[in-house]
């Protein structure tokens, strides 16, 4: 079934909403939202995209907020199946891409095990898009030949962590840390303890893709302290490419000065 084919009654579409700006959603994602009878929406999904939905559509908030509102994944799976079995066209809308730390495969399996037709509509993953929106490429010719995307939801040494920080520290690739605001001091300290140069450039991009996006850049040994005032959602980039954040900051400042000057002239 093509991603732009009509969404049939009794079908679930797992839609990635991209990094925050509704303009960065895919055409197929918008088409699914427009056809939905029911939308199960995460807090990181672009809220403005709901304006595309039918006024008769049921919108269900299934947020998982850190230390806040929480809808168990098992209940989300049940809702997808229940609404589809009732003959509704169901859209599961979340931020970024649902298959990058988004539990999208869990939802797909829940639907297939219940014999509910399910369609995947990939989204622009925030792990690449948010750095780009902050002026940072995750790769750059002659500088770095790869990147690693890791979850920082638990700190190094935690029983639930499966990451080899020693290997990451010496990988020579860009490190992109998602869900790592609270654990950033532990993550950066562990990387340095395992051999990462403490002067390695780093940057934190908060609220990427939103009008209030903020970018903080500093050497990796300092980045946690410099970015301590930023709140989730935020993504950290560690590696030589993060030095481009400084260039972007200068460009943004220059553009702001030019804008104000033009306003004064006009």
From TrEMBL:
E.C. code: 2.1.1.107
| Alphabetized Pfam families for the sequence | TP_methylase (PF00590)
SUPFAM superfamilies, per database record: Tetrapyrrole methylase
Q: Which InterPro entries match?
A: 4pyrrol_Mease, 4pyrrol_Methylase_sf, 4pyrrole_Mease_sub1, 4pyrrole_Mease_sub2, CobA/CysG_C, Siro_Cobalamin_biosynth
Q: Which UniProt keywords apply?
A: Methyltransferase, Porphyrin biosynthesis, S-adenosyl-L-methionine, Transferase
Q: Which NCBIfam families match?
A: cobA_cysG_Cterm (TIGR01469), PRK06136.1 (NF004790)
Q: What is this protein called?
A: uroporphyrinogen-III C-methyltransferase
């Amino acid at each position: 079934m093509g991603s732009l084919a009509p969404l049939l009654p009794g079908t679930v579409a797992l839609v990635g909403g991209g990094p925050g700006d509704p303009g960065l959603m895919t055409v197929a994602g918008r088409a699914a939202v427009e056809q939905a009878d029911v939308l199960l929406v995460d807090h990181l999904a672009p809220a403005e995209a709901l304006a595309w939905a039918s006024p008769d559509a049921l919108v269900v908030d299934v947020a998982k907020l850190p230390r806040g509102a929480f809808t168990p994944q098992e209940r989300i799976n049940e809702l997808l199946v229940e609404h589809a079995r009732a003959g509704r066209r169901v859209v599961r809308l979340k931020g970024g891409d649902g298959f990058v730390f988004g539990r999208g495969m869990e939802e797909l399996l829940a639907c297939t095990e219940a014999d509910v037709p399910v369609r995947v509509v990939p989204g622009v993953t925030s792990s690449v898009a948010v750095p780009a929106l902050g002026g940072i490429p995750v790769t750059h010719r002659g500088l770095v030949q790869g990147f690693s995307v890791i979850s920082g939801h638990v700190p190094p040494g935690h029983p639930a962590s499966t990451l080899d920080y020693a290997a990451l520290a010496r990988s020579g690739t860009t490190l992109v840390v998602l869900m790592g605001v609270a654990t950033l001091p532990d993550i950066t300290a562990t990387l340095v303890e395992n051999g990462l140069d403490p002067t390695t450039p780093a940057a934190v991009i908060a609220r990427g893709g939103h009008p209030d996006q903020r970018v903080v850049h500093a050497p990796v040994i300092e980045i946690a302290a410099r970015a301590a005032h930023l709140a989730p959602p935020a993504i950290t980039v560690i590696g030589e490419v993060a030095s481009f954040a400084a260039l972007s900051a200068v460009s943004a400042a220059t553009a702001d000065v030019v804008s104000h000057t033009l306003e004064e002239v006009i």
